[in-house]
Amino acid sequence: MARGARLVCRGRSLPALARAKLQVQRLVAARWTGIGAVRTTSAGRFVFAVPLRTLGGWTLRARLPRTATHNPAPGAAARLVVARRR
Fold first, then answer.
1. What are the counts of helices (DSSP H) followed by strands (DSSP E) for the chain?
2. 11, CA 20 to 30 Å: which among 23, 35, 64, 82?
3. Domains of the chain
């Protein structure tokens, strides 16, 4: 993907968690860093956009934090490379 582009990520929680707040995280220097948050729909689906400003490898995930009724649950990580625009 090109630097300056906007990455749109879509997903769903299983089981479907209505209106759950998910943390959007990026792996930086071997640590997960929060870069935003998103709420699921009534059907457990979510979508978020991330502006790609830094060159190099990116690893992103959506994570359900600990709540009164759920243990923390990280989602699958997605990897991509951000390059200069041509």
1. 0, 7
2. 82
3. 6-82 (2.60.40)
